[in-house]
């Protein structure tokens, strides 16, 4: 019955823990595996009593008094038969060359693993603990401590003899000890003490909190985090103690060091072991729970927690329940936590099992993400740590991610991820395309297919194009635009489009796409026909890009109908390929388009299309009257008689007036202005432009009986015709609007003219005087005559070589010099002398300014 109840309890707690793990979404911090190989064989026949860990090996003590040295995989490398009873503790120095062992029968052995030195002693009581000096390998540090009812320190003297001294006794059995540097920490029934080996002083006593717990059933766990930080776990209490130096002023009779508790908190379960992990703690806990069915207390699986200590509490980082063999029979004292400082390995030791906990690496992190189907995070983690991962490949994770997205029906995301994951692997791309085809999702992957480096087989691209052609013309057109034409067999796709056009011959999307395919295939003629039929904007670009001017000579009307402005610009820019004559001939039946072309030609160059200027008169008159007059003004090649005839036929007054004036018939032009337009201002302006007195006379005669015209003339002719001529002819009694204002304006204009003339006269006189004075000053200056000057007549030096010989030289203001005898003799009619050179060149005569004689 008891056995059945035990099985029921076990199944209950296992199912509970499994459900907790399933619900938890938090990634564990540690991973676990059993220490197997030789350990499995040992624990089948024996039970683990204690273990200690070195970076190089493990040392395991059993209930049958054996000590095994193991490698990190659990293989046995050495065996020692120490005692017939339980090994209570094993201690190693830092070098791993010396070992201390104590057992339940009181035996203590300290010996070298690679040397002959050893210490053997059997006490009359069980020895629970032993600790060798971490630097035992040094001659000066041959020390170790043992603990039973009292704590003894053994030291080897200079005569190689061992002597002992009692460090502490009288407070029950010593049950735990840890030696770090010069400090020894131990626990007895009353609390924890720390002893300074250097000063030979005990520096603290940390009392036990819960004295109700049996110290033999719930032993104290000690752990040095570093050389001055001790972590104490006892019952459910954790204390972190810091050893500090006492200030010299506070020494007196006190130890040189003291201990300060920097953190203290309670845990949920009983503590079986402690270990540091960076600034966190790893805690092994003994758990008891109550069954909901039987309401009986049972031993649950032990827990390994990672906690973050705070000054008065702690924060749980992770918590794992460990399924160790025989956990239903174990007590708190049966569990031990040992650790390797160098590798962050934690060993959970129980009588029937040893479990190794390791910090999870990046591979483990990726495993967990994949297990939770967090593929994107797994892929990102692998990319970031690709140099550190060993068991995973980025490609494998990526492929699993794509499969996962496909299974979820997220086809577009899966296709997008293919770009990054598949990269340049053409074989994988083709495999994925076929996979998308099987599920009918070729459209999803089409935007992401590689279009160069790598290039897939043409069949892949054709397969996708056919898929779109069957169901989505717009999507098909988009792919044809975006994909280079060399990715697929163009002729195959062209034929497929033609087949579809048989069913829907007017489909603009298919026609446009077929034109693009023809362009890729360099079949520009067919492409051009389709573009013109569709009136597509790319037709001009196609013509320019592929020089299709020979193909459009008979399609000029179509081009002009589509976009006359672009067509004309293109034709004019390429006159060497399509002549003006050819264009005009093609547009003969479409005079409105012919006019557009010739008008733009005339705007570019007034002379290129001169042979068509006569034709243009009719075209402007018919289709573009506003530009007719500018054309007549700018053209020097149009026949005026023909133009006049057309304008008169159509009663184009302004154009007729211009032509009459240009042909010299100003009086007829003026008559049309006055009689047809009745515009006095225009008539006056016209008379001003012609500047003909007879024209003014005609205008005055026409206006003499028209008061509005007289007003206009009075206001405007003051500067061209004497207003008196007009005023004398005005009939007496005629009412002229604004006559007074007009007369005032005439007087003001006259007065203004007088003022302007006087002002100009003053300026002219002042400038003339200034220039005369400047000329006088200039002419008064001397002229340099030296040996380099020559006579401009005889070309010999102006000065004689013999300075004693008399000479006569004439120098003019123009700086030309002559011998006096070389100048002509002045006549009686013109006694003044002039420079022969300047007079001959009509520069104005230069008069003599200086005559030199000697």
From TrEMBL:
SUPFAM superfamilies, A to Z? WD40 repeat-like
Extract one GO BP annotation from the record. Answer: late endosome to lysosome transport
Spell out the Acidic residues composition-biased ranges: 1-26
Membrane protein topology class: Peripheral membrane protein
Q: Does the keyword ATP-binding apply?
A: no
Name the segments for region: Disordered. 1-33
The record's annotation in Gene3D superfamilies points to: Tetratricopeptide repeat domain, YVTN repeat-like/Quinoprotein amine dehydrogenase
Q: Which residues form the RING-type domain?
A: 791-839
Q: Where is it located?
A: Cytoplasm, Cytosol; Early endosome membrane; Endosome membrane; Late endosome membrane
Quote the Pfam families the UniProt record gives: Beta-prop_Vps41, TPR_Vps41, zf-RING_Vps41
Q: Which family does it belong to?
A: Belongs to the VPS41 family.
Q: What is this protein called?
A: Vacuolar protein sorting-associated protein 41 homolog
Species name: Panthera leo
């Amino acid at each position: 019955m008891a056995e059945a109840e035990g099985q029921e309890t076990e199944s209950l707690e296992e199912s509970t823990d499994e459900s907790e793990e399933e619900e938890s979404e938090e990634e564990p911090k540690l991973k676990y595996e059993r220490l197997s190989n030789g350990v499995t064989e040992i624990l089948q026949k024996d039970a683990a009593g204690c273990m200690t860990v070195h970076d190089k090996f493990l040392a395991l003590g059993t209930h049958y008094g054996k000590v095994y040295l193991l490698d990190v995989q659990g293989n046995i490398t050495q065996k020692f038969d120490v005692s017939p009873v339980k090994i209570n503790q094993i201690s190693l120095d830092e070098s791993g060359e010396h070992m201390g062992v104590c057992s339940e029968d009181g035996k203590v052995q300290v010996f070298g693993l690679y040397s002959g030195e050893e210490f053997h002693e059997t006490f009359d009581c069980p020895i629970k603990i032993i600790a060798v000096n971490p630097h035992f390998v040094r001659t000066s540090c041959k020390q170790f401590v043992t603990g039973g009812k009292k704590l003894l320190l053994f030291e080897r003297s200079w005569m190689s003899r061992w002597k002992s001294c009692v460090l502490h006794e009288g407070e029950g059995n010593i049950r735990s000890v840890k030696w770090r540097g010069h400090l020894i920490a131990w626990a007895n029934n009353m609390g924890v003490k720390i002893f300074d080996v250097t000063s030979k002083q005990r520096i603290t006593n940390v009392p036990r909190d819960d004295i109700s717990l049996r110290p033999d059933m719930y032993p104290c766990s000690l752990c040095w985090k570093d050389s001055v930080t001790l972590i104490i776990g006892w019952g459910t209490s954790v204390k972190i103690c810091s050893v500090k130096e006492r200030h010299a002023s506070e020494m007196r009779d006190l130890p040189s060091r003291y201990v300060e508790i920097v953190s203290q908190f309670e845990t949920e379960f009983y503590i079986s072991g402690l270990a540091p992990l960076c600034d966190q703690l790893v805690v092994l806990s003994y758990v008891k729970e109550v069954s909901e069915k039987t309401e009986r207390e049972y031993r649950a699986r032990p827990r390994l927690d990672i906690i973050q200590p705070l000054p008065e509490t702690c924060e749980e980082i992770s918590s794992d329940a460990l399924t160790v063999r025989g956990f239903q029979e174990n007590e708190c004292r049966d569990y031990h936590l040992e650790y390797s400082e160098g590798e962050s390995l934690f060993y959970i030791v129980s009588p029937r099992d040893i479990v190794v906990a390791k910090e999870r690496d990046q591979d483990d992190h990726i495993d967990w993400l994949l297990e939770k189907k967090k593929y994107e995070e797994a892929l990102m983690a692998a990319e970031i740590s690709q140099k550190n991962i060993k068991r995973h490949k980025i490609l494998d994770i990526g492929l699993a991610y794509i499969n996962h997205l496909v299974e979820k029906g997220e086809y577009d995301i899966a296709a997008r991820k293919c770009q990054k994951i598949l990269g340049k692997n053409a074989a994988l791309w083709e495999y994925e395309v076929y996979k998308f085809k099987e599920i009918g999702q070729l459209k999803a992957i089409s935007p992401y297919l590689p279009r160069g480096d790598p290039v897939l087989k043409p069949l892949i691209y054709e397969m996708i194009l056919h898929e779109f052609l069957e169901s989505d013309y717009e999507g098909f057109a988009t792919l044809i635009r975006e994909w280079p034409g060399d990715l697929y067999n163009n002729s195959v796709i062209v034929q497929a489009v033609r087949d579809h056009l048989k069913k829907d011959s007017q489909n603009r999307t298919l026609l446009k796409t077929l034109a693009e395919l023809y362009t890729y295939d360099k079949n520009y003629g067919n492409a051009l026909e389709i573009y013109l039929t569709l009136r597509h904007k790319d037709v001009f670009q196609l013509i320019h890009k592929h020089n299709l001017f020979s193909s459009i000579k008979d399609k000029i009307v179509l081009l002009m109908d589509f976009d006359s402005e672009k067509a004309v610009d293109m034709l004019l820019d390429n006159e060497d390929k399509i002549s003006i004559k050819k264009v005009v001939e093609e547009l003969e039946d479409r005079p409105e388009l012919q006019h557009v072309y010739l008008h733009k030609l005339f705007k570019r160059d007034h002379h290129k299309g001169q042979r068509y200027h006569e034709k243009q008169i009719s075209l402007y008159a018919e289709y573009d009257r506003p530009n007719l007059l500018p054309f007549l003004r700018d053209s020097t090649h149009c026949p005026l008689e023909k133009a006049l005839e057309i304008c008169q036929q159509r009663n184009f007054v302004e154009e007729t007036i211009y032509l009459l004036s240009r042909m010299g018939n100003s009086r007829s032009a003026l008559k049309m202005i006055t009689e047809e337009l009745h515009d006095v201002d225009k008539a006056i302006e016209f008379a001003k432009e012609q500047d003909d007195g007879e024209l003014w006379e005609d205008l005055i005669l026409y206006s003499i009986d028209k008061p509005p015209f007289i007003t206009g003339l009075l206001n405007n002719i003051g500067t061209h015709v004497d207003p008196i001529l007009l005023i004398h002819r005005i009939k007496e009694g005629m009412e002229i609007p604004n006559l007074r204002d007009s007369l005032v304006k005439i007087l003001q204009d006259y007065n203004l003219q007088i003022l302007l003339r006087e002002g100009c006269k003053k300026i002219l006189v002042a400038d003339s005087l200034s220039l005369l004075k400047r000329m006088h000053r200039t002419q008064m200056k001397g002229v340099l005559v030296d040996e380099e000057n020559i006579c401009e007549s005889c070309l010999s030096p102006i000065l004689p070589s013999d300075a004693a010989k008399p000479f006569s030289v004439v120098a003019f203001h123009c700086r030309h010099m002559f011998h006096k005898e070389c100048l002509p003799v002045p006549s009686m009619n013109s006694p003044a002398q002039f420079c022969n050179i300047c007079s001959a060149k009509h520069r104005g005569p230069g008069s003599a300014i200086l005559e030199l004689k000697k």
